[in-house]
Every structure is written in structure tokens, then in C-alpha cells.
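User: Hi! I'm working on a homework problem where we have to compare a predicted structure to a textbook description. Could you give me the structure for the chain below?
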Amino acid sequence: MRVAPSIKLTKKERTTLECWSQGRRISVRQRDRARMTLLAADGMTSKEVATKMGVKAHTVGRWRSRFAELRLAGIEKDLPRGGRPRNQREHLESKIIRKTTQETPKNATHWSTRTLAKELGVTQSMIHRVWKANGLRPHLVRTFKLSRDPHFEEKLIDVVGLYLNPPEKALVISADEKSQIQALDRTQPSLPIVPGRCGTMTHDYKRNGTTTLFAAIDMTQGKVIASCMPRHRHQEWIKFLKQIDAETPEYLALHLIVDNYATHKHPKVKAWLKRHKRFHLHFIPTSSSWLNVIERFFRDLDEKRVHRGVFRSVPQLIDAVMSYIDQHNGDPKPFVWRKTAEEIIEKVGRARLAMNNAPIG
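Assistant: Happy to help. Predicted C-alpha cells:
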């Protein structure tokens, strides 16, 4: 019958082990080993220590014997483990990273853990560990679009300047249309959310028509002026400009931030603006919808009210949209713009450089 070696500690050893057992900068493994040794030194058997610490008895016995043989040095570091030699693992890791980032399978656009493991003759779990350690996720892709507007910086500085330093006796307003909002009805009833199960919704739907939301957000208070119309031509845009004119203090100049949609530049729109001198339109650069704050409001509206909604008619959809806007205006919170034009230009410059240096194909 094997007998566990008794542990007797010197004063210095006990002090060191107590520091290890309570240290926040000590690894969890080393801290547990120190506690095992202290409990063993207090006269507890390996089985009793294992029960108290929630580990297996042979684990306690292994570290107990190691301390008895090598003292503090024996439990300070992990025991050598099996597996491939370190230099071989590093070679395989670099090979996995290079294969993942520089090559693609013959019949696919990206690798999976299974296909790459089969290609390299290693286990799927090893591919997963290397990907996780290096932040590689071949199954994901981020979309982007850099503006090719020749006046990008000029327009950017103009719009960001309005956000950060609005002129006196004026309102800065971000405006746009959210067109083709669909009134979708599901083909089957949805199930509500319950503990242990998320809500359900059928993947197919019935189209019941569309509407276009014209909206403008006051950058000072966060209130939204809105109207739903069946179409989004220049006639509807002028009608919405008249609504903005009626719902804002007439003594304030209005600086509207809009995109480059042709409707906003229609000759009849320009003629109307000439007759209404307090309106000043500022156009964001092309392919830069992120610069128009109203798009953030549209996103929230879609996520919170429209995307998962069930609408059996266009009037029902319009009621839901306008109800959401009324509730927003009851307790408005302005969208605060924080980035300076210089920071944005620097970031866009890095993106252009990376895109120009990227391999083609």
C-alpha cells in the first residue's frame, strides 16, 4: 500500500506558499498547488485535500510527492506535458496561418476547420486553437465602401463642422428618406418568447405594400420631424421641406445635411430653395451614408419596430412607424457626434492605403 509522503514546512516555505495561495498575480495552477501543499502540511490526507478543493486525489498526490522531492521549485512550474515538440507546433502554427490568410481551397472561397485540417493532415481541434489564438475567422467578412467623391474632404469638413460647431441662430438638421418600407405579414402565427426558448417567426411572408418615410432629426434636441408618403419624388421632397419649414422656429436658419439622391438636386427643388432663403443644403460625400446621422435613427427604427413587426396593411405599418417616432419625441435624446474631420480623414487614408496594397484576386 502506497503511503503519501508527509509534508513538513520550514518557516520560509510556509510564508512563500501562503503568498502564492493568495497572490493575484500568480497563475491559478500555481495558486492551487500551493493550497494543496499547505493543507497537506496541516495533516490532511490527499483524499481530504481533494474533497476540499474539488479535484482528484491522484492530482493532489502527484504534487504532494513533487514537493516532497523538489520542495518549492517542484510546484512552481507545470510538469512537462506530452504532445508535439514546441518547434514542431510553431512550424505547424505558421503553416496554418499562412494557408488560412494567403490561400483558398479549390472549390470554396474560404477554409473551414475540417477542410484545412484535411489539407494539412492535422486535427480539426488544432486548426480551431490556432485560429482562436490569432483572431482568424475565415467564415466572417466585413463590408466596406470608400467614397470616390473628388470633393470628399471638402464635404466632410463642412458636415462635421456643422455637427461639432453649429452656427448661431440656426438649426442643424440631418434629413433623408427611408424608401420602400414593406408592410410584411407572416404566413403563420409566431410563437412568443418563453424561458428556455426564443421567440419564433416564419421565414416567409406576404407583402402588403410599401411606404416611404421622410424624416429629419434636430441635432440639438434629437426631435424628429417625419411624414410617410407613397412615393419619393421631388414633389414629395418639396412637401416635406414645407413641413420642416412649418414645424421649426421661423427666425432660425436651417442647415440641412442630405445625401446626393437626385431628388434633392431637382431643378424645382433648387427653385423652391431660392425662394426660401433660410434653407441651406449641405451634401455629404457620395458613398458616405454613415456621415448622415438620420441613418442611425433609421437603423434603430428598423431594429426595434419594423424588422420583426407584423403588418397586414400599409396604414397599420404607418401607424406603427409614427407611433415609434411620437414616443421618441416624448423623451428625445440627441445623437452626439464625436469624431473630428481630421480623425476621419486619417482613418480613411489608412483604409485607402490598405486597399491599394491589397493583392488582387
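For your comparison, note the following. The CA atoms of residues 113 and 128 lie 6 Å apart. The chain has three domains: 11-76, 86-133, 152-193+201-350. Good luck with the assignment!
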